[in-house]
Amino acid sequence: xxxxxxxxxxxxxxxxxxxxxxxxxxxxxxxxxxxxxxxxxxxxxxxxxxxxxxxxxxxxxxxxxxxxxxxxxxxxxxxxxxxxxxxxxxxxxxxxxxxxxxxxxxxxxxxxxxxxxxxxxxxxxxxxxxxxxxxxxxxxxxxxxxxxxxxxxxxxxxxxxxxxxxxxxxxxxxxxxxxxxxxxxxxxxxxxxxxxxxxxxxxxxxxxxxxxxxxxxxxxxxxxxxxxxxxxxxxxxxxxxxxxxxxxxxxxxxxxxxxxxxxxxxxxxxxxxxxxxxxxxxxxxxxxxxxxxxxxxxxxxxxxxxxxxxxxxxxxxxxxxxxxxxxxxxxxxxxxxxxxxxxxxxxxxxxxxxxxxxxxxxxxxxxxxxxxxxxxxx
Amino acid sequence: xxxxxxxxxxxxxxxxxxxxxxxxxxxxxxxxxxxxxxxxxxxxxxxxxxxxxxxxxxxx
Lengths: 378, 60
Hints:
The structure holds two protein chains of two kinds. By secondary structure, chain A is mainly α.
């Protein structure tokens, strides 16, 4: 593709490499494992819960391939520009605002979850407002640095996160019992497959890649970044669920709010290697801040693209203020988790997978018809 | 402590809103009409909701 990939965009977002983009998207999607995601999936899939992210990953990759096949003829335009140019701004503007609101709400929900988790696990006496405000300061700074800054930080953190996560998953294996993962099919293959379909909501990869398409150097990089980010996300989620189920059983995992944190507390390798939740908190905060920073950046960028703004950075501040208000709208963490399990998880795949795919196919189809009409007239 | 926290939150909200108003003025002067509308909506939402949230926190 493309010497002038960014020229059609009014907002310059820069260029990113495969490793950087893969790291950022993987961290964004897989940070949920530190929160209540393993607990929710353990309830849904029982002993087969560890398969759910793998099957969901395969479905997501199939959708990503379809999206790539449709988008490869317009390498200079991202999803929003494609819809604006092919359909009309009357459709493009609401679509961009809807995606912006989606990432905004996701960021607010994740911030509330992380804030409450910090309060309940490590800083019980600190007011939630101070923790949220501290998060928000770093998040705004990350988002202000833009896509290139975010991706570079992501690739630096990814190695530390990867090694830390492997340590956290390997050291509690002394408590692991393989029979806890039987029966293999959990509640039955049909139930597992249905929950896998719904759990594609955990994979925002397709939507993010469709938005960041012109930022990638060429089409091979785009496919590789898509494949690797989906693969790493699915493997991370599956590995965490595998160990959590093997250590706690599916019934107990479903009752624990933050299973990975409990897993870290179990670690005891002699007198000097124990209580590794301090390492866990470091990893978890590093990943969370990056996720929220990218969420705020995406929200700001999409909002700016919807209203054809020449720059997006100044609107990050009012967006951050709005996030601060939305963070405290739900009464408690139970309300947030109910929101996650009743609204986000069953329906987010419509925004993350279905909407981008349908919009791209319709836009490219209309472009193709227009081209054919022009040829016929000439 | 609560009064200090409230005052800080209030001042930060006002500072952000003033910054957003300045950005709106810059967009208006550059004749970016659609952008001006977009940022105005966002500023109204952020201003309205944050002040309502802070005031409600003060009284309830």
